[in-house]
Write a structure and sequence with these properties.
The chain has 282 residues and is of the alpha/beta class. The chain has 9 helices and 12 strands. It has helices spanning 21-32, 48-58, 82-87, 106-116, 134-144, 159-169, 232-239, 248-263, 269-279; strands at 7-13, 36-42, 62-65, 79-80, 92-96, 99-103, 126-130, 151-156, 175-179, 191-194, 220-223, 243-245. The strands form 2 sheets. It has a 6-stranded mixed beta sheet. A 6-stranded parallel beta sheet has the order 9-8-7-10-11-12, sandwiched between helices. A hairpin with a 2-residue loop joins strand 5 (92-96) and strand 6 (99-103). The longest helix has 16 residues, at 248-263. The protein is globular and about 60 Å long. The two termini are 31 Å apart. Bound molecules: 2'-monophosphoadenosine-5'-diphosphate. 2'-monophosphoadenosine-5'-diphosphate (ATR) binds next to helix 5. 2'-monophosphoadenosine-5'-diphosphate binds at residues 131-136, 156-158, 161, 180, 196-198.
Length: 282
């Protein structure tokens, strides 16, 4: 029941109508019987400053931030976590008595999903990562923060973008940069992560790998795509005897971490995954 003391959480983005976050968070709030509600707010880029002023004025407890605001929002916050600063993007804002604090929970989400859903703990020493956009940036940050990861092969269509990303984040010299057209070296990796948009609806009939012969049975393939739930890359992985996970776990774990930042309570992640699955029917 929404009452006079119900507190508000939400997500801002543009577009935002198809987001699974309200389903996930409200399911967890209901399961814990917490007096919060989580809503989706479409915020056009020119009105972002007013939206954040509104967050302060209305005392909104927490917001997730999605495309296209993850970078732009940083200029309007009072404090930004070191992790979000390094990744260069904020996906979670907590309102602490009027002080807006920015976090990034995407890096936590990917590592937690690799552990919990992919059964990888520790991660393998050699990891291949596809892509050099915003999503790849958070994943690369997460991989480089893990001591057991000795080498990351970072492949992108535009090699210069991969080189720039590596130069930005890789202080220990762990990253090898290459082209998405040359997939042979992926064969040495125990984990392949797709952080490109390829395979995501509406481009769900393509794989980021032109030649899947580098996939093998001792490899986990993790696609950050969750719509569709099974991508062409995941089917290529299965055909090669590799295990594969989609991005639903990462979505749920990043959400779970945001939820904990706002409420101080660890949410039931299984409930969040089930709610997201209902939102994206197979
Ligand atoms: P996001 O923030 O979701 O990561 P992005 O910053 O637009 O989105 O990055 C998209 C990623 O998908 C990039 O790595 C992009 O490659 P380029 O850097 O070469 O643009 C990759 N990508 C998108 N469309 C692609 C395509 N048709 N072929 C290969 N890579 C593609």
């Amino acid at each position: 029941m929404i009452s006079g003391t119900t507190r508000v959480l939400g997500v801002i983005g543009d577009p935002v109508a198809h987001t699974a976050s309200p389903a996930m968070h409200n399911a967890a709030l209901r399961a814990l019987n917490l007096n919060y509600v989580y809503a989706a707010f479409r915020v056009a880029p020119p009105t972002l400053p007013q939206a954040l002023a509104g967050m302060r004025a209305f005392g909104i407890v927490g917001l997730n931030v999605t495309v296209p605001h993850k970078q732009a929002v940083m200029a309007h916050l009072d404090e930004i976590s070191a992790e979000a600063q390094s990744i260069g993007a904020v996906n979670t804002i907590a309102n602490r008595d009027g002080r807006l604090v920015g976090y990034n929970t995407d890096a936590f989400g990917i590592v937690q999903s690799l552990k919990a859903d992919g059964g990888l703990d520790p991660l393998p020493p050699k990891v291949a990562l596809l892509g050099a956009g915003g999503a790849a940036r958070a994943v690369l940050y997460a991989l480089l923060a893990r001591d057991e990861v000795e080498e990351v092969l970072l492949l992108n269509r535009t090699v210069e973008k991969a080189a720039a990303l590596a130069a930005d984040l890789d202080s220990a010299g762990k990253v090898r940069v290459g082209s998405l057209a040359e997939t042979g070296p992926i064969g040495d990796a125990g984990l392949l992560i797709n952080a490109t948009a390829l395979g995501m609806h509406p481009r769900d009939d393509v794989s980021p790998l032109a030649d899947p012969s580098c996939l093998h049975e001792h490899m986990l393939v993790a696609d950050i795509v969750y719509n569709p739930l099974e991508t062409v890359l995941m089917r290529q992985a299965a055909a090669a005897g590799a295990s594969a996970i989609n991005g639903l776990g990462m979505l749920a774990w990043q959400g779970a971490r945001s939820f904990e930042i706002w409420t101080g309570i660890e949410p039931p992640v299984e409930t969040m995954i089930a709610a997201a699955l209902e939102h994206f029917p197979a």
